[in-house]
Amino acid sequence: MENIILEGIETRGILKTKRKKERGRDKCSKFLKLLKTKHEEEPEIRPRRAKIIGVFSCKGGVGKTTTVCNIAAYLTQKLKKRVLAVDANLTAPNLGLHFGELEPKVTIHDVLSGKIPIQEAVVRRHGIDAIFGSIAFREEVHLVDLRAHLEPLRSKYHVIILDSAPGLGPEVMAAMRAADEIITVTNPLLPTVASTIKTFGAAERHKVPVMGVVVNKVRGEPFELSTANIKKALGWPVLTSIPEDAKVREATASGIPVVMYAPSSPGARRFKQLSEKIHQFLFS
After folding, report:
1. pLDDT tens, 9-34?
2. Closest to 95 (Cα-Cα) out of 121, 134, 60, 144
3. Residues with Cβ within 8 Å of residue 28, at least 6 apart in sequence
């Protein structure tokens, strides 16, 4: 009888221990499942990659480069973003002139010819990072993969702004293929607005999203197209209209963006508004 009682006690003890182990395993399984679920719900942390904004115009002389340097200046200094302005006008570069740089020591042409890595082509002027082109470059421009060349810099910046050549040639298409979004610059005259439609057509063919249109050098003349008519003709939003402003021309001659040179001038105020819209579009 004594043996039977002892065996019963021993059996109950084994069963009790077994149940404790099973409960422990259940708790462990639940805990692991909870950790797995929590891990799956956590957002993936991705490295920063700059948005590449291309600024285009089918006609020259509309103020495209002026637009690029002022967006870069305002986003950098006032909105505290890491911005790089790049001269993608390979045949007739002049972004450097707008920053007061006549003969840059390193250029985008040095990068494309394989002389230096693109990181070494970045210079800083007026607190703004930029890659300039060589005014002295005389060789034929061949097809380039600009997006691939810019790739090493995308983790360093929030925004990379491309100053494209006018027209629809190979270098323009290289810049367009490199861009994540494009902005077109026009003026309120019929021939320029008509040519802008070709730029939008190219963007559509290459499936590059269009942010909108900047109408520059507005004088308020009766023969100019209104903002409403330009929007209707092009089918894209007008981001801003910038008045003809002597301070903008004066700032360009001084090699300083007008948002820094004459920040209260009518042109500077509109460039600031444009930059604020771009900032909201990219980061809100």
Report:
1. 344 554 455 555 555 556 556 555 55
2. 134
3. none
Contact 251, 65 (CB under 8 A): no
**Residues with Cβ < 8 Å from 86, sequence gap 6 or more?**
95, 108, 130, 131, 150, 160, 161, 162, 163
- Residue 120 structure tokens: 């070494």
User: Given the DSSP bridges, would you call strands 210-218 and 238-243 parallel, antiparallel or unpaired?
Assistant: parallel
| Phi and psi, residue 49, nearest 5° | -130, 125
Predicted confidence (pLDDT) per residue in 74-115, tens digit: 999 988 899 999 999 999 999 999 999 999 999 999 999 999
- The structural domains of the chain, with segments of one domain joined by +, span 1-45, 51-283
Model pLDDT for residues 151-205, shown as the tens digit of each residue = 999 999 999 999 999 999 999 999 999 999 999 999 999 999 999 999 999 999 9
* Residue-level length of the chain: 284
Considering the domain 51-283, what is its CATH architecture?
A: 3-Layer(aba) Sandwich (3.40)
- Cβ neighbours for 256, distance < 8 A, ≥ 6 positions apart: 99, 100, 126
What's the token pair of residue 195?
């040519």
- Among left, alpha and beta (phi > 0; psi -120 to 50; other), residue 138 is alpha
Answer whether 148's CB lies under 8 Å from 161's CB.
no
Q: Average per-residue pLDDT in the chain?
A: 87
Which two three-digit tokens encode residue 155? 């983790």
